[in-house]
Automatic annotation (TrEMBL), chains A, B:
GO terms for biological process: iron-sulfur cluster assembly. Signal peptide: none annotated. Belongs to the iron-sulfur cluster assembly SufBD family. This is ABC transporter permease. PANTHER family: FES CLUSTER ASSEMBLY PROTEIN SUF, UPF0051 PROTEIN ABCI8, CHLOROPLASTIC-RELATED. Pfam families: SUFBD_core. Residues 85-304 form the SUF system FeS cluster assembly SufBD core domain. It comes from the Bacteria.
Length: 306, 306
């Protein structure tokens, strides 16, 4: 792994050395390091690029790291990762992606298709951080597709973050929830320059007392554009909530299109969205306390996203 | 005008006799009574079915009644009405539509395309009530298209109500707002049986300090289906708010798809939507006070819609 890849690895997954337990590190479309643990087995797919991550029932408090790195221009990575989470398991998955195109004029992209099959009463915390780095004209593109199937009583929390350097992203997250399954999604997106980001969600609450809570916070700076689309279907007794708050700066453009459909009398669905610039009085308050305009802005954005 | 038409007229516009001032009453695709006033002129269109309503500048506190009635089955009415509101005018327009198919097996429909051109600083209150009546299998369909163009400083308030008897409706309301123009839309919709209702809005705030406030309240009973779609574009310094609250009962299905897009840093846009059934504690409270289940339900629905 070269210095660029090491830097990316640290940024997206916090890793400075190989972790304990299970991991798979992918660089430029190839697995470059892998380890299974007693409870978590990682095996290559035979029919296409990617891995199966098989978590034994009752596995507790283990981490799985599966960062993907693209460390040069001209790479078009496509990977299929499937997660099979055994009953009653309770684990954390760290899955970031960093794309560096250096000073290359060739763009690079990473397309990751992740599927999650959560067994009964299992719990997963999924943390995903996307960044792009490079000074050349090559575009950095990350298009993640995430499909989640949750069995009875399972819980999944997804924390996804894209803060900088990704020129274009199309995110698509799809979930199907059985009885008592709960899904929490926290998304943070910041775009700048002339970047484009689309984030699309589709959640079917098929099981009684299932619930979804979808919270998206985004900031669009410069000439960047963002579209947030969510579709929540309440098909039985269930509770759905979606919330999209966006701050626009400079010439940023944000659209929010949240769709909620109650197909059952016992579905309760709520969504909220607000788009606007930083409130003037907040700026004034911080500047009165001695911050410059830039510092005040940074502080507000930081507080908003965290 | 026969008894059915008289009854419809009373229901949709509150009229029991011909009003003072300007009016046009349409029955089964024909104008059956018309009167212009000194300040409000009503003239037939020459190229198609419909009327132009021309309101002189500075006209104050006048009413215009333009109810449309369909009093039998087999009628397919299509009408184009254009309203030209002079500068500084301040008027009320009562425009309801009643469709009765009696015991006919033939359906009837009314398609009204209304365009409003509001002059500078003019004010319009537009009240529209839609009902359907009939015991036959003939479907009653009302599809209104409303286009609004608001000059600087104008104000329009639309109150639209569809409470019962309309088997299918597709409503489309479109508005373009210049500087300081304000638009308030209050929609009430109740569907029952296997009725279908779609209500679509598209508002462009092109002028500085323009604003739109869109409030939709709906109730879907039995097997009825409703779709609410709103699209609010903030293209400059402006404020947009949309709110869609729906109560579902029995097997009713409601979708809400509000889209907000900030194309300007100075646009502030908010939307909220909530779909659910009548809260149990509200029912219990009213039943504790001596109301039957049916009475309690009726009271809650009534309060919600009014």
């Amino acid at each position: 792994m070269n210095e660029i890849a090491k830097e990316l690895l640290k940024e997206v997954s916090g890793l400075e050395e190989m972790p304990k337990g299970a991991y798979n590190i992918r660089e430029n479309s190839k697995s470059i390091a892998r380890q299974s643990s007693e409870n978590i087995e990682i095996v290559s797919k035979e029919d296409k690029s990617g891995i199966d991550i098989i978590v034994k029932p009752n596995t507790k408090s283990e981490h799985v790291f599966i960062p993907a790195l693209v460390s040069c221009g001209g790479v078009h990575d496509l990977v299929y990762n499937d997660f099979f989470i055994g009953e009653n398991a309770d684990i954390i998955i760290i899955a970031g992606c960093g794309v560096s195109t250096g000073d290359s004029c060739d763009g690079s992209e990473h397309n990751g298709i992740h599927r999650f099959f959560l067994g009964k009463n299992s719990r997963v915390r999924y943390v995903e951080k996307h960044i792009g780095v490079g000074i050349g004209t090559g575009k950095r593109v990350i298009n993640p597709v995430t499909e989640v199937e949750q069995e009875e009583g399972s819980f999944m929390e997804m924390e996804t973050t894209q803060i900088k350097g990704v020129d274009s992203t199309r995110r698509f997250t799809k979930a199907k929830l059985k009885d008592n399954a709960k899904l929490v999604i926290k998304e943070k997106l910041m775009t700048h320059g002339d970047q484009f980001a689309e984030s699309k969600f589709e959640v079917d609450m098929d099981g009684e007392d299932s619930s979804v809570n979808l919270i998206s916070r985004s900031v669009a700076r410069d000439y960047s554009r963002q579209t947030f689309i969510s579709k929540i279907n309440g098909n039985t007794r269930c509770v759905g909530h979606s919330e999209c708050d966006a701050i626009i700066m400079d010439h940023g453009v944000v659209s929010a299109i949240p769709e909620i459909t109650a197909n059952s009398l016992d579905a309760t669905l709520i969504h909220e969205a607000a788009i606007g610039k930083i409130a003037g009085d907040q700026m004034i308050k911080l500047m009165t306390l001695g911050l410059t305009e830039g510092e005040a802005e940074a502080k507000i954005i930081d507080g908003f996203l965290n």
